[in-house]
Write a structure and sequence with these properties.
Length: 225
């Protein structure tokens, strides 16, 4: 259930998430004002900060942190909280703002690093195109999107002779040729992002909304090039 909820958030636009975060801040501020001075709701202010920082980005998270701190200050002021000195108010504001900013920055940086790791794990280190696992995930999403209502062709390309090239000219030359072939394949297909290296000298190409006859035409064009 939680995984499905997070998956839906990933597919939600950043603008909607930001607006929802602002709504949460206003709602928590209203509850903070209504409960008066006896209850502290600092923990609940962290939810919109975490939400926006994780799913939108660092800048939006920092702005949400500032909005949360300002909302807390206004709610406390309207509730009648006063301190013996204005410096105490400034100090408390700065402390809460500092904690909120640290959380926003840490979460956004953690998300950025996780995205980078995920990107590296899904890319073939040599050609830069999707590896086998990433390609099959892409293909699965395309098939779900088509829902069986569109023709779809899956082609596999296996390059032979690389063992001789590696032994004759060296592995560096073989890797360079493999990258050139990968670039050539992506250049000649309608959806280059749906080309993956599934292992060794084998490539897979997914052609959405493409019949077998159209796929043969694309293949002939590739072979002629």
């Amino acid at each position: 259930m939680i995984r499905n909820f997070l998956s839906r958030l990933e597919q939600t636009s950043k603008r909607v998430i930001t607006l929802f975060g602002v709504f949460m801040v206003i709602l928590i501020g209203a509850v903070d004002f209504a409960t008066g001075l006896e209850l502290h709701l600092m923990f609940f202010y962290l939810f919109p900060i975490a939400l926006v920082s994780w799913f939108v980005g660092q800048r939006a998270g920092i702005l949400t942190a500032a909005l949360c701190t300002l909302t807390w200050l206004v709610a406390n002021y309207l509730s009648g909280r006063r301190f013996s000195s204005d410096l105490i108010t400034v100090w408390n504001f700065a402390m809460r703002l500092g904690v909120s900013l640290v959380i926003a920055y840490a979460l956004s940086q953690l998300r950025r690093m996780l995205d980078q790791i995920s990107e590296l794990a899904s890319r073939d280190f040599l050609t830069g195109m999707p590896n086998g696992r990433a390609f099959y995930n892409l293909a699965g999403r395309e098939m779900q999107r088509a829902f069986g209502l569109e023709p779809m062709t899956l082609a596999f390309i296996d390059i032979e002779g690389f063992k001789w090239i590696n032994h004759r000219f060296g592995y560096a030359t073989g890797d360079q040729m493999l990258c050139t072939i990968a670039y050539s394949i992506r250049e000649k297909v309608p959806r280059p992002e749906l080309v993956g290296r599934i292992g060794g000298t084998s490539f897979a190409v997914l052609l959405p909304n493409t019949t077998s006859e159209e796929a043969r035409f694309i293949w002939r064009r590739f072979s002629a090039g």
